Amino acid sequence: MNNEARSAVILARGLGTRMRKADDSAVLAAGQSQAADAGVKAMIPIRRPFLDYVLSALADAGFTRVCLVIGPEHDTVRDYYARLATRRVTIETAIQQRPLGTADAVLAAEEFAGGDPFAVLNSDNYYSVPALRALRAAPPPAMIAFSRRALLETGNVPIERVGRFGALDIDERGFLKKIVRDDVDGGDAVYASMNCWLFTEDIFAACRRVPISPRGELELPKAVELAIREMGMKICAVKVDEPVLDMSSRGDIASVAARLESVEVDV
Asked: The domain containing residue 101 runs over which residues?
């Protein structure tokens, strides 16, 4: 019997603050500028919406059910995916009423999860199919630990940004201890979180208990650390040397589009 996860939750509720910020050096097509102005990174067109590529990669990895967590104002996203004909994945939406952070966004998908293991991903990251397959095959709860070397050398993440993702403190058994801002003692191999998780339903209790951060948000990484520290959760950190295409700002759009030029979408 195959017990690998089939469901994935994509967090698409963010305000897109960095994407909205003007960047005179970024040369964008008209449709890309419009989507960037709205801050809806998932819908930035690269022949078709960026999120379509993420969905196609999930399907390639064996996921068959996807829930998009969006805001009540995201009619464009909801209407597009309600009309999109798919053959490999079913697409549902869940509403996060207010932008209270990623832990609150995960709670919005509790009914969708239905007690089964489920992946959680960002809507502005394109994860490689091998990384998603490794996540799906891992015993939950788990996460993908991306080597900083691969993020820098084969992804599009600039060196000044990679530190924002935090370094992973992983114990000798391969379980996550915490996410730290400063580098941990990992020799030359420092691993980062790119918000690529595989959870069981236990994460919902942690998301309800996590306190509001200094930024005024309920943050998923803090919920994970609470689950480890106070609930005894063991999260397997699956180390990979795989790239991630990060589309946080207008300046990222051209590099992401170039990398996805030869990728065929099949959802």
From this structure: 7-259
